[in-house]
Specification:
The model has no long low-confidence stretch (mean pLDDT 92). 44% of the residues lie in helices and 18% in strands. Strands 4-3-1-2-9-10 form a 6-stranded mixed sheet, sandwiched between helices. Strands 6-5-7-8 form a 4-stranded parallel sheet. The radius of gyration is 18 Å and the shape is globular. Strand 3, helix 3 and strand 4 form a beta-alpha-beta unit. Bound molecules: D-glutamic acid. D-glutamic acid binds next to helix 3.
């Protein structure tokens, strides 16, 4: 007899959560996945906390109506603004959020290689209490610089959407310019969009990037406690611009990400 499969919901303002989704698909077998891309309301990083809390509740309701048992907030901005109110409102639902992996600093196998590091985030994440507390807790000496990157998530969406062309390359170059002068060895990616172009960032800045994807997937694995079975070959996808559920294959996801070479650097 087949085991009943757990249904998990994942959301982000757009395609950024794909950097988390693909780690979950690689790590967690035997689940059903619903992914919501809230394009109608992106970018999240430039909204107010109240707007993001309200929007996260709307998306959560949609996922709960589909029968999702666990929800992955695959967005640093939504995690910063909304995960606490979500947990308070939907007490029976486990939520897994995403935070920048600043704690890489305290991991012995990496710490000796880190000469100079920075963490980049959206504006919303950067000004959030949750981020400030995380930074204080994991980097009390303040050795990791923080830089907000307005517009970078939208540039990543365009690159994934139309492919990399000269004008997007130039735009990316300009956005990364303030980081260049910092002469970094490591860059912590504090927005789920950024790992989608980790290869371009590494090349442009000559840094090693660090992403949170594998840690989020581990957490989901622990909560779902899968009993074996196949890894997902497809997932359901809805963009709030079209409001139509589509079925997408894991192959489609991996080929999309291979093109942009997601890297975890962890
Ligand atoms: N991917 C999201 C994050 O991790 C939000 C990007 C945006 O919509 O501004 O913060």
């Amino acid at each position: 007899m087949n085991e009943p499969r757990t249904r998990i919901g994942i959301f982000d303002s757009g395609i950024g959560g794909f950097s988390i989704l693909h780690r979950i698909i690689e790590k967690v077998p035997s689940v059903i996945i619903d992914y919501i891309s809230d394009d109608a309301f992106s970018p999240y990083g430039e909204k107010t906390d109240t707007e993001i809390v309200n929007r996260s509740q709307v998306i959560t309701e949609m996922l709960l109506q589909r029968g999702c048992y666990l929800i992955v907030v695959a967005c640093n901005s939504a995690t910063a603004a909304a995960i606490k109110p979500l947990r308070e409102k939907y007490r029976d639902t486990p939520f897994v959020g995403v935070e920048p992996y600043i704690n890489v600093l305290n991991h012995r196998e990496h710490s000796s290689e880190i000469r100079k590091a920075a963490v980049i985030t959206t504006e919303l994440t950067g000004r959030s209490e949750k981020f400030k507390m995380l930074k204080q807790r994991t980097d009390p000496a303040g050795s990791i610089l923080h830089v907000s990157m307005p517009g970078l998530a939208s540039t990543v969406e365009s690159i994934l959407d139309t492919g990399l062309n000269e004008s997007l390359m130039e735009e990316l170059h300009k956005e990364l310019e303030p980081l260049k002068v910092l002469d970094l060895s490591h860059l912590i990616l504090g927005c789920t969009h950024y790992p989608l172009i980790a290869d371009l960032i590494e090349k442009d800045l000559d840094v090693i990037t660090v992403s949170s994807g594998p840690y989020v997937a581990n957490r989901v694995f622990d909560l779902v406690s899968p009993s074996g079975g196949e890894f997902c070959s497809s997932f359901s996808y809805l963009s709030t611009s079209s409001m139509k559920w589509e079925q997408k294959t894991s192959e489609y996801l991996f080929s999309l990400l291979k093109h942009s070479a997601v890297k975890d650097g962890s």
